[in-house]
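User: quick one, sequence for these tokens?
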């Protein structure tokens, strides 16, 4: 019974921290005040000093502390007391680890394979690039598979590989093969800029990649070079055609719409869906670090939809899944479909089922959330590995701090 596994937040926090301390010979001072306002710990495992030398560990667990304080005295169902077999995929259930305080079940994990990218899209990063994490501190292939196993065994059934640009990671094919062997994983997807995809895609498909998103913001080569600060427009189009020929259906094409840059191409993108199994996904321009976001560049979903309605008859709304981020449409007689990602004007937080594992091991429960939780990096730094049960407790504490909606 689920009720038999309930632990108070205080008990769960003490269990998690004290277990790590005992198992890894940590010098650990845990203070949890009467009003549940703070959780302090200073663990210093001998073989993990590099993770704690740059700043006090208190600063690194502050997001967890904040999440705990937000919950107050709310009882928390943890996975600390149950064995791995109880929550295995065979039971076809979602572990408490993946259920947040608002009852949302998180069955979709996005894994960033690298911070590097071979484009410099203006809405994504500054022209000079971004400061990169040193390679030794990025997740190894074995660490990625270990964490993927943890999440899939707890109820995740879809994993999306992202970046940076995931195709530039040398061992990506091996990662795909190993991920598809995890029992319970139904969908292995990838989001890519398509620049080097065409030649690699046959091997990716053989390795088990069964869903594909390709980013393309313009159908004009000169404009592509301006937006991305790189050449390669023809290579992206080639990748889309290759994906279609290999049987991907639909091939999802992500297009970030920006006023004055590509909003005049909306109907040109819609034409891509006339005779081909393409799902064009128009994405509202969103603020990210370094993209100099300006509300004047935002083209709202309603305006984009109105543009299409004026040019095409027979536009029908399709049934969306409860966790869909997209509003999906189809034009009578067209093979493909058109969708809108309304991140700015109509939030979809209520049905959010996504978690994000960053390339450096940090963990985000919300794309727009300001914090990256360090917990996963800490778990991975402890050798030999702590138990899967302890991993579950740590991940669950983070997820319980996920807010009901974003502030964009």
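Assistant:
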């Amino acid at each position: 019974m689920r009720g038999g596994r309930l632990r108070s937040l205080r008990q769960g926090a003490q269990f998690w921290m004290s277990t790590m301390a005992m198992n890894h010979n940590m010098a650990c001072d845990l203070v949890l005040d009467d009003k549940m306002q703070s959780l302090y710990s200073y663990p210093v495992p001998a073989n993990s000093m590099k993770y704690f030398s740059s700043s006090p560990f208190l600063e690194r667990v502050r997001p967890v502390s904040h999440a705990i304080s937000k919950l107050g005295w709310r009882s928390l169902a943890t996975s600390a007391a149950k064995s791995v077999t109880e929550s295995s995929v065979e039971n076809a259930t979602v572990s408490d680890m993946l259920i947040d305080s608002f009852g949302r079940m998180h069955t979709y994990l996005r894994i960033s394979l690298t911070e590097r990218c071979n484009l410099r899209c203006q809405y994504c990063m500054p022209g000079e690039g971004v400061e990169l994490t040193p390679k030794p501190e990025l997740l190894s292939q074995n660490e990625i598979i270990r964490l993927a196993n943890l999440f899939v065994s707890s109820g995740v059934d879809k994993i999306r590989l992202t970046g940076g640009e995931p195709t530039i990671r040398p061992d990506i094919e091996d990662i795909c093969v190993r991920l598809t062997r995890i029992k319970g994983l139904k969908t292995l997807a990838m989001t890519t800029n398509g620049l080097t995809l065409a030649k690699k895609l046959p091997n990716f498909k053989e390795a088990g990649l069964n869903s594909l998103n390709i980013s393309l913001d313009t159908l004009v080569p000169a404009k592509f070079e301006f937006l991305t600060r790189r050449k390669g427009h023809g290579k992206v189009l080639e990748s889309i055609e290759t994906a279609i020929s290999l049987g991907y259906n639909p091939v999802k094409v992500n297009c970030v719409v920006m006023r004055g840059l590509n909003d005049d191409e909306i109907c040109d993108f819609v034409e891509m869906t006339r005779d081909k199994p393409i799902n064009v996904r128009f994405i509202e321009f969103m603020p990210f670090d370094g993209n100099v976001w300006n509300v004047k560049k935002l083209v709202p979903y309603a305006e984009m939809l109105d543009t299409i309605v004026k040019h095409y008859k027979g536009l029908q709304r399709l049934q969306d899944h409860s966790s869909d981020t997209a509003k999906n449409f189809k034009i009578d007689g067209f093979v493909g479909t058109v969708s809108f990602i309304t991140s700015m004007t109509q939030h979809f937080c209520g049905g959010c089922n996504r978690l994000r594992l960053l390339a450096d091991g940090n963990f985000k429960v919300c794309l727009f959330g300001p914090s990256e939780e360090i917990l996963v990096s800490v778990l991975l730094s402890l050798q030999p590995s702590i138990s899967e049960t302890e991993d579950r407790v740590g991940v669950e504490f983070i997820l319980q701090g996920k807010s009901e909606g974003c502030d964009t």
